[in-house]
Amino acid sequence: MAHKTSAMVEAGIMAAIAIVFALINMYVPFVGMFLNFIWPLPIIICGMRHGMRWSIMTLLVAGAIIAILISPLHSFTLVAVFGLLGVVLGECMRRRLPPLKLLAVGSVAAFLSLMISLLISILIMGINPLSMFFETFDKSLVDAVEFYQKQGMSQEEIEKATKSAKDMFAMVRIIMPGAFLLCAPLITFANYLAAKAILNKLGERFESFPPFTNWDVPRWTLIPYGISLLMITYYLSQPTSGWYLLGVNIQMICSVIYVLQGLAVAFSYIDTKGKPKWWKTVLVSLIFLSQFISQTVVLLGAFDLIFDFRKRRSVSSR
Predict the structure, then answer these.
(1) In Å, how far are 42, 123, 313 from 154, measured between CA atoms?
(2) What is the pLDDT at residue 133?
(3) CA 173 to chain centre
(4) How far apart are CA 34 and CA 25, in angstroms?
(5) Cβ neighbourhood burial of 141 (10 Å; 0-12, 13-18, 19+)
(6) What's the CA gap between 85 and 79, in Å, rounded?
(7) In angstroms, rounded to a whole number, what is the distance separating the alpha carbons of residues 276 and 202?
(8) DSSP assignment, residue 238?
(9) Beta carbons of 312 and 214 less than 8 angstroms apart
(10) Staple partner for 40: which of 3, 58, 86, 198, CB 3.0–4.6 Å?
(11) What SS3 class is residue 305?
(12) What pLDDT is stored for residue 114 in this prediction?
């Protein structure tokens, strides 16, 4: 009875925290943008400490009150996008799954949540968030052109100023499916680290992820990467083809994975050779600033799967 009372009190506190997160997101957008990603945190903690039943109850209570205080649509968005992740991740941590397995299960839950919320928005509510996003961009581009015209810029100068933005969003339209896939593990990873840090303060202990310098993706990922490059090359003259779009998305996902693989190789070299730590910061910064550097790191990661620069596989096979 005492345990049930304790679980009920803690579930109420966690629901209150989730509601506060939602209110901050609504009225303090800049801070709320970051809180949004860890909104499942109270659900995770409750589920880990008291079980899935209590995490679901926390989610339902928080969702109902958010619907009353803010709006049903806002509540639906939070519950649909982050609710399943919170329940699943809490149960995974309660069962003490290894970090990599937990990340995989949580990523599947996060991806399903994103897809379910998108389908419900389109089919039931008649709202397409993706269309709204791109419509907002198109409108902002029109506003930008009007502003440039008022400033007396020539048509040629306006076209140059807007070309890069148009090209960027044209690429965003293409890689949107792959971006959804990549968002899932990022959201899961951030919530797991945050929940782990809090639960460690409460006396819980969880297995840590392997050191980043030991990051190693399966060698079979080279197969879809190679196929994607062939698909892009073959269908380059048909940029609206479904095969071309599929190839670009596969190539983009593999490239992100190989950037991490390449960074792990570079960081391992910096550590083993005793190079300055600031080299790591500079390298990460250059990846975002220089396409040449980012592509070089991608190739480094891909070639590491072939040549095993860190000699990890030869050591593990002994």
Answers:
(1) 54, 44, 59
(2) 67
(3) 17
(4) 8
(5) middle
(6) 9
(7) 36
(8) -
(9) yes
(10) 86
(11) helix
(12) 80
273 by Cβ neighbours in 10 Å (0-12 / 13-18 / 19+) ranks as exposed
| Strand, coil or helix: 209 | coil
Q: What is the 3-state secondary structure (H, E, C) of 124-185?
A: CCCCCHHHHHHHHHHHHHHHHHHHHHHCCCCHHHHHHHHHHHHHHHHHHHHHHHHHHHHHHH
Contact present, 57 and 86 (Cβ < 8 Å): no
Cα–Cα dist 89/109, whole Å: 8
- State which residues of the chain have pLDDT below 70: 1-5, 29, 31-32, 124-130, 133-134, 157-158, 161, 164-165, 313-318
List, in order, residues 6 or more apart from 154 with CB less than 8 Å away: none
State the Cα–Cα distance between residues 267 and 212, nearest whole angstrom.
Answer: 8
CA pair distance 175, 36, nearest whole angstrom: 23
Give the Cα separation of 49 and 45 in Å (integer). Answer: 6
Amino acid identity for residue 303 in this structure? F
Contact 301, 262 (CB under 8 A): yes
Residue 220 backbone phi and psi in degrees, to 5: -65, -15
At a CB cut-off of 8 Å and minimum separation 6, what does 301 contact?
217, 257, 258, 259, 260, 261, 262, 263, 264, 265
Per DSSP, the residues of 62-131 read HHHHHHHHT-HHHHHHHIIIIIHHHHHHHHHHHTT--HHHHHHHHHHHHHHHHHHHHHHHHHTS---HHH
In what helix (H) or strand (E) does residue 195 lie, and over which residues does it extend? Answer: helix 155-201
| DSSP run (H or E) holding 213 | none
